[in-house]
Amino acid sequence: MESKPHSKPRHPKLLAASSAAAILVLGLGAFALVPQQASTTTSAVPQQQSAHLEQVAARSMPPHMLEAGAPFSFADLVERVSPAVVTVTVEQEVNAAAGMNMQDIPEPFRDFFNQQGQDGKQFNIPRKAVAMGSGFIVDKSGFIVTNNHVVENAKSIKVKLTDGREFTARLMGADPATDVAVLKIKSDRPLPSVEFGDDRQVRVGDWVIAVGNPFGLSNTVTAGIVSSIGRDVGNGPYTNFIQIDAPINRGNSGGPTFDIRGKVIGMNSMIFSPSGGSVGIGFAIPASTVRDIVAQLEAHGRVARGWLGVEVQAITPEMAASFGSKDLKGAIVANVVPGGPAQKAGFHQGDLVVAINGAQVEDSRDLTRRVAALQAGSTATFTVVREGTKQDLHAKVGARKDQQLASNDSPDQPSGSAPTTAEAMGLGLASVTPDVRRAYNLNKDVDGVVITKVDPNSDAADKGIQPGDVVVSVANKPVHSPQEMKSRIADAKAQGRSAVLMLVSGQNGQRFVAVKIDQT
Q: Where are the alpha helices (DSSP H) in 141-245?
């Protein structure tokens, strides 16, 4: 039985790499072929001691050429780090027949199952199941890191070392949002451990090595390269994965990813697979993310994240053009939570956040991660672009709670003008009247300009705008009638803009859309 990931990845082929083993990945970021070092021993050192010192020195070095023209070897590195890679075995209680219906049971056997529940109803038969994953020791006192989905819903957790010793582990804390968990075992002597490295120095093309327990085959070693960095696989806003091609399979979840110096640069978590086996596409959580989460879990047993109180989205090149520049980076504020830190600091809907404490913001995911990393109660400086002008806003960061999400409700707007209709940019436009509100089932508080039709050949259609959507603002200014909307578009065109930024409210909340205006 295999453990299940905390949440299903967005892509149906993305699988948690847990349930049978651990994996160790080695990134050759700063790889260089190093010739064998000459002995530094002197005649005063006995020959036997000299040989021993050479052996120890060799094991602390990165892979090296065995001899001229021969391939290098990872053997010394693997021998040094593999004792810290462990097998994590989890005992769970599952419902063997969950989701089955009594009508699916042959008639002769229904009397027995009727004791479990009423005929025609679902029934559950609890039984024990065992799942396996991997982990690695990060402290000689017995702290172990693994994936949350490996130990989730565990009744008991066992940890087995490569030397055969087995321990009962205690769950110190877990963070489902990043899929990181910390275990603790007690040992009468110091345990082998590994150290975190700097994943920010990793480059595409660096070598990687995986050591773990795929399908229960302990101490399996595989090698490959870093295929990509900064991968978004739909597993939440807090992690940009390292993609590797070192073969990893089910049971590798929670295993470490090493660089060529033997430092942990990531933790293997998922694979992309059409068949359930490795096809050379695996994903590791960056060490910087793991290290920060582990520090909080060890200290407090939970993770505290900063909260700003905004909904944000990435800025596209067309959105950047609507601001008058094609090179802008950052995150655009789609909504401001009433009473939140952002509102108190003076954030406005439509602000483009370009920097935090002087450091450039790349996109909306970058902003989300960096705000989450801020300490609650601290004050941070956010640089925003508003109506073409940069300004600094100082916000006191709040503490994020699970239920503390940005509101999708539109703020109160002044009532609309006289009912009118118009067309612009391939869109049919109408004021929000009682009849229009009923026809499109609009919330009573919604105000703006209703989209009544969309030309399928228009840029607006390509951007996903649909009849029933409501345009709340154009060029970051509220609109209440079709004529007012057309006037905003004309102003943008007169300024030489190729696109206009619209805030659109639909079934999935509010979002900014940059629509080309060369059609008008």
A: 148-151
Q: What would the pLDDT profile of 65-79 be if each residue is shown by its tens digit?
A: 455 555 678 889 999
Q: Which one is the CATH code of 421-516: 3.40.50.150, 3.40.1000.10, 3.40.50.1000, 2.30.42.10?
A: 2.30.42.10
> Could you tell me if 287 and 198 are in contact, meaning their C-beta atoms sit under 8 angstroms apart?
yes
CA dist 326 and 498 (Å) reads 11
Query: Considering the entire predicted model, what is its pTM?
Result: 0.61
- Only one residue has tokens 């200290």, namely 299
Domain boundaries, the chain: 1-33+72-303, 306-399, 421-516
CB distance 248 to 283 below 8 Å = no
Topology of the domain covering 1-33+72-303 = Thrombin, subunit H (2.40.10)
Nearest of 269, 287, 272 to residue 202 by alpha carbon = 287
Degrees to nearest 5, angle at CA 494 with 489 and 497: 70
Q: Does residue 502 surpass a pLDDT of 70?
A: yes
pLDDT in tens, 23-55: 333 322 222 333 333 333 333 444 555 555 555
Q: Which residues contact 405 (CB under 8 A, 6 or more apart)?
A: none
Which residues are catalytic, by number? 149, 179, 253
CATH topology of domain 306-399: Pdz3 Domain (2.30.42)
> Which tokens in the block code for residue 243?
């993609």
- The rounded distance, in Å, linking the Cα atoms of 382 and 394 is 6
